[in-house]
Amino acid sequence: MTTPAIPHNSIGLALGSGAARGLAHIGVLKVLEAEGIPIGCIAGTSIGALIGALYAAGVPLTRMEEVARNVDWQQMAGLIDPIIPTSGLIDGKKVAHFISELLPVETFEELRMPLAVLATDVESGELLVIRRGLLREALRAAISFPGIFTPVHFAGRFLVDGGLCNPVPVDVARDLGATRVIGVCAIPEVEKRPQEAFLPNPRRDQPRKNPLFDFFDSSMVERLLRDLWPLGESDEPRHLEKGRKPPGLLRIFAQCIAIMENEINSLRLARDGADVLLRPELNGVTLLEFNKADEIIHAGEEAARAELAAIRALTGH
């Protein structure tokens, strides 16, 4: 069986990363399908790869929406298979099994349209575009959030989330043969202004800190260590606001990746330029708030409707 060919003069979809925010892709697809916008191929990163694969496999959007909205995300914690930390906190095999139960096909060649899934070689830093072979393993690599999930051994490489290199793969959709590309970016655009910060000089009456912190000058490192080895209240550093807790370890992982992806995304979108770029309004949603599926999917629908005139223009009508 061969990979399906892309129809001539097709529109491609580039579905980006964003963890829970990426559920907005379902809303975008709902509008495109309702409006009869023909999609010839999909390139996906991270959760965009997963949703793109489900759509390319013929899974109805009503089914995707039902799973996203009705799944008990607290019970889903049972899919997490923690391991002794070496290269990640979670193995991910149970998550891969869950994905395979949703997919009606096993290989790329069985899909109804061309699909490209992006992953990053964690050792070399290379971006891999996967288009053939076992779909489940490719998706498992594409969603392997670094530091949380262990890298996936695939084709002699160790792979993690493709969003590290290409958060919204507009250029990959064009490489698949699309002449026009709709990009969907679920990473909120943040205006960051440089700020000057300083740490106050220690006071003589300041309580003695945990001696481990004497080896570190960085408050970021200190906060990270506090997650792993909390201090007693009497040892709390004075430069932290009273009553304000530092972010947890997993939140630090997630936020650091999100900050980097935002910067990479800005540079890539400026260079690759989608014909239409959709950015759902998701500033009130964090990376792990899958329980807000209804709100997120609705944001995707609203973003697509707001650009319907531009989208219809891509079809020549």
From TrEMBL:
Pfam annotation, one family: Patatin
Protein's name according to its UniProt entry: Patatin
GO annotation, biological process: lipid catabolic process
PANTHER family for this protein: NEUROPATHY TARGET ESTERASE/SWISS CHEESE D.MELANOGASTER, NTE FAMILY PROTEIN RSSA
A GO term, aspect molecular function: hydrolase activity
Keyword Lipid metabolism: yes
Keyword Cell cycle: no
Catalytic-site annotation from UniProt: 46 (nucleophile), 161 (proton acceptor)
Gene3D superfamilies in UniProt: Cytosolic phospholipase A2 catalytic domain
